[in-house]
Amino acid sequence: SDVEGDDVAAPVVASGPMDINTAIAEVLKSALIADGLARGLREAAKALDKREALLCVLAENCDEPMYKKLVTALCMEHGIPLIKVDSNMKLGEWAGLCKIDAEGKARKVVKCSCAVVRNWGKESAAHEALQEYLKSQR
């Protein structure tokens, strides 16, 4: 036949517990694809207030204390799980606020102090790992 069947091996997925930061990054990516991600204070506050939020991710190194207080208070009031990550630069990259160059590296990353998931997108191993993490935090 004309077509040669080059069998490409599937990438080996590390078995064992998924790192929580990797899980957050993957969940935010699938939420972004499903148009279910609110980024920044205004979008996040609206989603939290309307109780559309399923999960809130807040950066620890946010330089505005009132920003953190507002997001934390909205999450507490509506019973929405809140996960804190250490860097707003990392959160910006995970939330898609960057350009990806030819090598697959993130360029021109915009800092993001708050991201809210309104729609999980497709269910995945990362989603399950995140749910387990949230259960253990209660």
Order of helices and strands: HEHEHEHEEEH
Order of neighbouring strands in the sheet with most strands: 1-6-2-3
Class per helix and strand makeup: alpha+beta
Based on Cα principal axes, name the global outline: globular
Mean pLDDT: 81
Beta content comes to 5-15%
Number of H/I helices:
5
Report low-confidence residues grouped into runs of 5 or more: 8-15
Gap between N and C termini = 59 Å
* Largest sheet: number of strands, sense, barrel closure: 4 strands, mixed
Fraction of helical residues = 40-55%
- Radius of gyration based on Cα positions: 17 Å
**Total strand count, please?**
6
Characterization of this structure:
- The structure is a single chain.
- This protein is α+β, with helices and mostly antiparallel strands.
- It has five helices and six strands.
- The strands form two sheets. It has a four-stranded mixed sheet, sandwiched between helices. It has a two-stranded antiparallel sheet with strand order 4-5.
- Helix 2 packs parallel to helix 3.
- It is globular, with a radius of gyration of 17 Å.
Strand and helix layout:
Layout lengths: L19 H14 L3 E3 L1 H9 L5 E5 L5 H14 L3 E4 L2 H7 L4 E2 L5 E2 L6 E4 L7 H13 L1
Parallel strand pairs: 2-3
Antiparallel strand pairs: 1-6, 2-6, 4-5
Can I get a quick summary?
The protein is globular and about 45 Å long. The chain is an alpha+beta fold.
Looking at this protein, list some descriptive labels.
alpha+beta, 5 helices, globular, two-stranded antiparallel sheet, 138 residues, 41% helix
